Amino acid sequence: MTKNIAVFCGAATLALLAGCGTSAPDTRDADTKALKAIEAQWVVEWAAKDANKLAAHYAADAIVMGPGMPSATGPDEISKMVKGMASDPALSLKFQTLKVEVAKSGDLAYTQGSYTMAMTDPASKRVVNDHGSYVTDYRKQADGTWKAVADIATSEVAPSAPPPPAAAAHKKARKRR
């Protein structure tokens, strides 16, 4: 009888230990599809210039870093930045997801891709065209949705040279006379 109890206790202990080692199911394929769908929807929302929906893609502690603009951190700054961009009549922003990588833990991911953008230059009031690449880091929220926590774009277009200062231009013109 004692031997049966020892065998039963040993089997029960092994069963408990085996249960402790069980990991959560691998949801990376489903998460990859979800992130591609999120980014496809994001492109649609940029075309519609829906600033509220655009800003809702970001987590409360997110940061956005884009070429030629100061970074925006947190809901207020990000909302202000998105509203400013969406109010530009010339704005066109499209991007294509080229890679999605989801952590095995299923709570972190990043996307990588390319973008094209047209927007009005605030200084010259002319429409400028830009293109480049981006990386967006995502964190899965408690409700299972994905929110961007770091959105970084890098332009492949060289910045235009600043115009010469007026005084220097005037000085050069006098020397030529």
Notes on the protein architecture:
This protein is α+β, with helices and mostly antiparallel strands and 177 residues long. The protein has one domain (24-158): Nuclear Transport Factor 2, Chain: A (Roll). Helices cover 39% and strands 33% of the residues. The chain contains five helices and six strands, in the order αααββαββββα. A six-stranded mixed sheet has the order 2-1-6-5-4-3, covered by helices on one side. Strand 4 and strand 5 (127-140) form a beta hairpin. Residues 4-21 have low confidence and may be disordered.
Work out the radius of gyration.
Answer: 26 Å
Q: Per CATH, what is the topology? A: Nuclear Transport Factor 2, Chain: A
- What general outline do the C-alpha atoms trace? elongated
> What fraction, in percent, of the residue positions are helical?
25-40%
Number of structural units classed as domains? 1
Structural class: alpha+beta
**What's the CATH architecture?**
Roll
